[in-house]
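2024-03-11 09:14:02 DEBUG pipeline.ingest accepted 1 chain
2024-03-11 09:14:02 DEBUG pipeline.ingest length=162
2024-03-11 09:14:03 DEBUG pipeline.predict start
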Amino acid sequence: MPSPAPLDVVFFELRGLRCALPLAVVRKVLPMRGVTPVPLSPPVVRGIAPVHGFILPILDLGVCFSPAGDETAEAATYRSHTDKLLLVETARDVAGEATRAALAVDRVMGIGTVDEQHSRLPPSRPPFLSATVLDASGPALLLDIGRTLDYVKDAIGTVIGS
C-alpha cells in the first residue's frame, strides 16, 4: 500500500482560527492596501482592490466561521499595516481561464507539509472546508479554493437575484 501523498500548504490565521491552503493555489502574499467596499455585496466580499493589473474581489471568509453560522456577521476591522492578502488562483478550466481572488487574513504563519495520515474530516460548516490537518504546530482547517470561490459566487448570486 503506497504511503499518503504529502501536500505543501500555506498556514494562515483567520479571525483566530489556524487555516491552510494548498501552496499550489497561492500566488503571493501581499499587504492589505487600497480595498474599496462594494455597496450591497454579501458580507463575504470585503471589497475590491487593484492587484498586479487585475481588479480582484477581496474575500473575508471570517464571516463564514461565526459561531451561530450567521453569514451576516459583522466584518472584522482590518489593520492595514499588519493584515495580509493571499492572492489565490484556481487551476485553468477547459477554456484556459483561471479564477483569481484575494483572501483577507490576519497573518501568514508559514509553509508546511501535511499528509492524509494526519488529516481528519472537517467541521460541517462552512462548506468549503476539505479537511482538518495536523502538523507539529497543531490542527488547521484546510480550505478547498474551488469550493470557496463557488461559495462566494453563490453568495453574490443570492444578492443579485433578490
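2024-03-11 09:14:41 DEBUG pipeline.report The helical segments are 145-161.
2024-03-11 09:14:41 DEBUG pipeline.predict end
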